[in-house]
Amino acid sequence: MTKMSIRLFLSFVSVLIIGDNIFQVGAVEENVIIQTRLGGVIGLKLVSEKSVVYQFLDIPYGKAPVGHLRFSKPQAFGSWSNTLNATQLGPVCYQSDLLTGKKPDDLTEDCLKLNIYVPHNISHSNKKSVMVWIHGGGFLFGSGGTYDGSSISVLGNVIVVTINYRLGIFGFLASNSNKAKGNAGLWDQILALDWIRYNIEDYGGNPNDVTIFGESAGGMSVSLLSLMPSNRGLFHRVIAQSGIANSFLTLSNSTHYTIDVGNRVNCTFESFRNEHNFVECLQSTDAVDLVRATDQLYLDMGFQSLIDLPFAPVVDGELIRKNPSTLLADKTSSEFNFFQSLDMMIGACDNDGSLAITVDPPFLSKLNLNFTEGVTTEEFCHQIIPVFSKALYNNSRDVSNAICEKYSERSNIEEQARMFLHMYGDAVFIAPGTLALKKHSDNLQGSATYQFVFSEELSLVTPSAPSWNKGSSHATDIYFLFFYEQLKKVSNFSSETDLFVERMRSYWTNFAKTGNPNGINLPEWRSFSGSATFTYMNLSSSETSMKTNYRKDFTDFWNQYIPSILQRGCNQNSCAVPVIG
Q1: CATH code for residues 3-27+38-84+92-358+426-548
Q2: Active-site residue 467, yes or no?
């Protein structure tokens, strides 16, 4: 989501969840104390007419990453001496106030916390499957506490855990110094999963039955984690929603942006004798100043920010040894072996490309375009495509011409605008996701592979979008997965939609428990095949059914035809790198 939709999303969610837990209306709330190996914990027990859910909020899994620990790998929090009050959410990780409107009092660097939602009862004899949610937000904003896991946990009888991890420059600053090699936010996620492995039994969970799931940057995260063989045993199944490791948007050139932000906060790179001292200067800079400098960088990037996230995961040679596309192409690597050992569900919204149209005027002004009425083919081919070609394909004219020809619609500017969104969605989400599915399904390890396409529309997600915008916009799926009960308080939905949401949550939790989304009274969901026909589940209230070969002509274009153009353009001195798949 971009600035406009981010603010609308967060304001909508905050109005509904602050002081209004899903189970609080008409529910009895009481404190409950449990004993864990780390110490006593006070949580909440919420009893409604339909069910019971236990909530343990803001539990620390990592020490405050401040001072010399800023930008570094996290350190385990360990035990606590007094009984921990886990009855309310705390401040969230430092993040963009430009994007979210959050105030300094809402933010902290001491944010390595997680939240646990336990349905029905806390049983140590009948351990429940665990689902760990990793939030999205472009690695720039968001928090685990935004997502109340109560409804999912109760419906599926699973424990849901949501986590915070460091964001923006705090989580993804990269340098050549050992003090800050990058990927701190990913190390946070891994430490949280390690905490869950050793402590979730105290809350009735099964550490040997863990599913990680996430959307957008969260989908990219869970997909990246599935390519790290050192994570073996931390989780066993993966659901990647509108985000995949081998997308060009997943990795960043953070080293370049680190120097840029340093210049903005008087930590000029050239003024230090070594990179170690440069990083120390950034470690001593006020957190608010770093956030504001990053915000200004984000604005100055303009449309480029839709192609290159300023602070995101990097190939560091340790956690991420090589580009994910390279790892997926190497069947002999330990990363590929681990990837194929996991049950995998990958999918997207059918209009994920809408991410490109809710951009703020400062971004659009750099292109001098107005998307309100549509996009002309000339604007698409001569102003938009060159930005992509320059950033991703060494300014290849052949690639630009091929994209223009594939996605041109000269007869109608509204249809041309929709084709632009399809182009962006295909390149960022659909094509790399399809390639990952094919790589995963072609294996002998017996793991399951499933694909979904979410096509339920919800205008609330992009209320300011042009009238020509159609389909399920980016992040629509999480509204139904996490916020449907809140949505029903402000809008009317049919009984068909009620059933659809129940089915969706059942698919997700069934997959988490068994590696198979199917269950009683659910339309059959067949696995993604390794043959010529690739099946997927279309998810909407009007039609939840199996279909085949989603956008095959376009995914083949990105995964096969574009790489062939680039290969023809290779010479002894240079060769453009195919980055989509």
Answers
A1: 3.40.50.1820
A2: no
